[in-house]
Amino acid sequence: MISLRRALLLTLLAAVAAVTAASALATYGVARRELDQVFDYHLRQIALSLREQVRASVPRPVIGAPGELDFAIQIWDADGNRVYASRPGVPLPEVDVFGFATVAAEGGPWRVYSTVIGDYAIQVGQPLAVREQRAFSASVRTLAPVLLLVPLLALAVWWIVGRGLAPLARLAAAVARRTPASLEPFSEESAPEEVRPLIRSLNALVQRLGAAFAAQRALVADAAHELRTPLAALRLQAQLAEAAADPAARTAAIAELRAGVERATHVVEQLLTLARQEHEGEAAATDAPVRLAELAAQAVADHAALAEAKGVDLGAARLDDAAAVRGDPVGLRALLANLVDNAIRYTPAGGRVDVSAIAAPGGAAIEVADTGPGIPAAERARVFDRFYRLPGTAAPGSGLGLAIVRAVAGRHGAVVELSDTPGGGLTVGVRFRAAPRPEEAPRP
Asked: Considering only Cβ atoms within 10 Å of each terminal Cβ, which end of the chain, N or C, has fewer?
């Protein structure tokens, strides 16, 4: 499990360690360069301090106790004989380059200054290990206060990270205390700017959950109210079938009972479809390319028997292969099924129902046009309400078809339009915004 607190602590402490190490290396480098300059100056001054003694042919240094300074002095005469060595046990190579040079010797490299004074060559050297040790000691002394403060800095980082993440901890605790009935928005007061987008997203989710719960409660209430009547009718029809005195009456009662069962089944199926589209739609929706022309052709084929039994001419008026959208094939199939079913139910015998899938530059559309009684303009806003049916409607139905159509269209960002069919009737159009290329859409 990824811990934001642990990740921040490890990252910041690693950064502190890296910066401290870089500072130590930089301090050591600066100290080494400065000590090199100082010690080179000392080497040259020691060599020049022997000038008078050498000119007086007295090869004896006057600096006193050079070993204490880790220096070594050698003097050669004009014949190449070494006439003086301050540290006989540490032989240096003979002079071959005058001035400063770094030479290899027994025990490690040396820094050497060589010069000629009169008939003598003077060589003064110092081990580089001495300089490294002095540079290291100077660096440690310089960095000691910083190194002592590193633990305090680590504690400060730990405290700052904990304090910075405290709003997230408080928000998590507030979410944990909530119950399914507590849908009040979370307060943004005193929340850092970085946490506010999360709080706004949570509040938007809470608002959607509240709307979903309210819709669910309304659906349950409406379903209980609407199912009470058909269930009471079924009970009465069953009692009539039981009490029928002759076979003809019993047959008629059973036929009525069967019709009532079919009506109740249709209502329950529509309720389940509406519940799935309104409440489970967002979780179940897909983003697959769908060919509307093939969905329309399938809807015509599925309802051909119903249209034939009703005496309605059902057909596909226009099917553009380029009409395609991205969305949920199951939901779009339910949308088309409800539009075609409604059109057939409300179109009288001898009428006509035309289904179209139309491609347009800005998107695509589905149209179902019938020659039925149509819907008055004043009622077109209400027909999308659940269980609402036009006054005086004789055709059987549940009043849920257009509610399902609106729910599916809303999930896909489409607009449902009701208009008059030329010559009389109703045309329902579902306009989708953008459609993909038809070659991307698989067959439903």
From this structure: N
